[in-house]
Amino acid sequence: MSVMDRIKTVVESHPIVLFMKGTPQFPMCGFSSRAVQALKAAGAVGYHTVNVLEDPEVRANLPRYSDWPTFPQLFINGELIGGCDITVELYESGELARMVAEAQKGA
């Protein structure tokens, strides 16, 4: 399976996926940490994460897959939502909580 197919499978198999540096328990960059905090505050539970530091192929190819150059990258229901700044903005507006609730309800 190609790395692009692997990425697609992960994105389509989970309602909420965060491609990040590190893990939710041990984020390896401030942006990933803030995205995790926003998701947690928005009520996201049991969402799927991919540590791009442990998978160089995914790290190298995800920006081509999503057309988004940086990490973290948040996908909800198969759709790229954005990176840290967009995730935090959506949380502050209350939109992220709605999106998370809808995605988890359908899971």
From TrEMBL:
[2Fe-2S] cluster binds at C29. Keywords: 2Fe-2S, Iron, Iron-sulfur, Metal-binding, Redox-active center. Residues 16-81 form the Glutaredoxin domain. The keyword Metal-binding applies. Pfam families: Glutaredoxin (PF00462). It comes from the Bacteria. Belongs to the glutaredoxin family. Monothiol subfamily. This is Glutaredoxin. The gene is grxD.
